[in-house]
Amino acid sequence: MNKLSSIINSLTGSKKKTAVVSEKEKIRNYIRQRKQVVTETDKSLDAQRVFDKIELMPEFEEAHTVLLYWSMPDELPTHNFIVKWSKRKQILLPVVKDDDMLIKPFSGKEDLKRSTFGIWEPDSQKEYMNQIDLVIAPGIAFDKNKSRLGRGKGYYDRFFINKRIVKIGVGFDFQLLESVPTHQFDIKMDKIITPSFSIE
Questions:
Q1: Cβ neighbours around 182 below 10 Å, total
Q2: Tell me, what DSSP letter sits at residue 116?
Q3: Taking the alpha carbons of 120, 124, 129, 133 in that order, is the dihedral positive or negative?
């Protein structure tokens, strides 16, 4: 490849990347607007429908360790599900440190502290380094090809690299789109579960 072709390919790739980023931001804004009109009652009902389905999945029934997320106000609620299952399984939660996502055991609501990002995280020095059987992950949007669009920091994508873990993405029905733009480093889910849909 000559120098001119290399430059053209580089510029083309850069334009494509910029277009993907722009499209991702449009989707994030759209989902943000949709979330603003969801009532607390609907959030609870939707969470119940999603986790009722997950509880029946062999991947969940057989899992000993499950990485979840302590939901923020704009996410599908997980608090009740985590507390319920922490009595029977090892529940883990992510902790953001610099550019990495560390994993720490959940030991109770009283042991959580609020991070600088506003996320409640385990207040423990103990990092979980063993096998994780299942991840139930949030996202801004998902699509029918099991692609996941996050908040843009790439924490989950980096964490999933070179790990063999069953990954289930969860969200509200309006977070499941026909397609979401992806980069080559975006990691797909194994399943997507919303109140009305199951993509397997």
A1: 17
A2: T
A3: negative
The answer to whether 75 touches 40, Cβ cutoff 8 Å, is: no
What is the pLDDT, as a whole number, of residue 134? Answer: 98
Q: pLDDT by residue (tens digit) across 172-200?
A: 999 999 999 988 888 999 999 999 999 99
- State the CB neighbour count (10 A cutoff) for residue 152: 11
Contacts of 161 (CB under 8 A, 6+ apart): 187
Strand, helix or coil at 177? strand
Q: Give the model confidence (pLDDT) of 26-42 as tens digits.
A: 999 999 999 999 999 99
Note whether 149 and 139 are within 8 A (CB). yes
* Entry pTM: 0.87
